[in-house]
Amino acid sequence: MDPIPDTTLDHVAVAAERQDDLWPRYAGELAGRWLGGGWTVGFGSAQVAYANGMKLEALEPHQWERNDFLRRFLDRNGPGPHHLTFKVPDINQALETATAHGFTPIGVDLRDPDWKESFLHPKDATGVVVQIAWSAGDWSGQRREGLPPPRTAAPAALLHVAHRVASMRAGRRLFEGLLGGAPVADGDGWVELAWPGGGRVRLLEGGAALDGRPGRISHLAFACQRPEELSDAVPTGDGTYVVEAGHNHGTGLVLWPEGYDRSHG
Q: Which element (helix H / strand E) includes 33?
């Protein structure tokens, strides 16, 4: 069965009590380029873009008394990765394809002429919220006042989202079979899937960190200039650096120097 056609991995979203807590890392140290933001019932969000086209979205609760999904997420899990958004050219076709593949879209909202969305529940999507959306265009706007200055003139590249799964078969059924990711690299217990536009997911199989769950986002991998300068960055001994999730509002980072050979995993 064919996947949803012409899907792109648009962004990864991370949640925190305050967006401003995230910008020193993602807009400052990693020099993400401001795209835009806004507020709606339940949450506020804003995005930055990186050198390879991949985006990161920051979420914080807003008017949560009227829509508490993000408030409940933070109360249950604390800050950290929240969802992956895949954009499609035809949302109705995407919904039909998802159903044909045995997935059940939830939260389907087709009312907005500029933004139409649906979701796959984490129980149906290897432990992560997957948003499938159609958009009339991307955010764009001047860099918001008060953001920390970028550490470097060039943004980092958000190389991949590392997603640990209990079952590689289930992970590939979703990200390759339904969402159309193309395998571009693999190794012992991992495979990397790519989409047009720069987005990649690296599936990692198993591990005690899952604690019985079907999956969870493990970390975000960036390539950047002088990664040793980032706060709380610890060398691994192989040329890369890590920032533990506890030092980055619940989201672990792996930092690759620009030009580093990643083919070994």
A: strand 33-40
The edge-to-edge listing of strands for the beta sheet with 80-87 is: 33-40, 42-49, 55-62, 8-15, 80-87, 129-135, 115-120, 106-109
pLDDT at 262: 62
Angle at 160 between CA 157 and CA 161, to 5 degrees: 130
Per residue in 148-159, pLDDT (tens digit) is 999 999 999 999
**What pTM was estimated for this model as a whole?**
0.95
Burial of 76 (0-12, 13-18, 19+ CB in 10 A): exposed
Written as six digits, the tokens of 154 are 């060039």
Which residue from 113, 207, 135, 109 is spatially nearest to 166, judged by alpha carbons?
Answer: 207
- DSSP for residue 152: S
Average pLDDT (163-192) is 97
Q: What is the Cα–Cα distance from 82 to 15, expressed in whole angstroms?
A: 6
Mind giving me the DSSP string for 186-226? EETTEEEEE-TTS-EEEEEE--GGGTT-SEEEEEEEEEES-
Provide the 10 A C-beta neighbour count for residue 235.
12
Host H or E run for residue 135: strand 129-135
Whether 216 and 207 have beta carbons less than 8 Å apart is answered as no
Q: How confident is the model at residue 176 (pLDDT cuts 50, 70, 90)?
A: very high
Q: What is the pLDDT of residue 263?
A: 56
Instruction: Look at the block and give the residue holding tokens 């989409």.
Output: 195
Q: Which domains are assigned to the chain? A: 8-135 (3.10.180.10), 157-257 (3.10.180.10)
* Whole-angstrom distance, CA of residue 218 vs CA of residue 210: 9
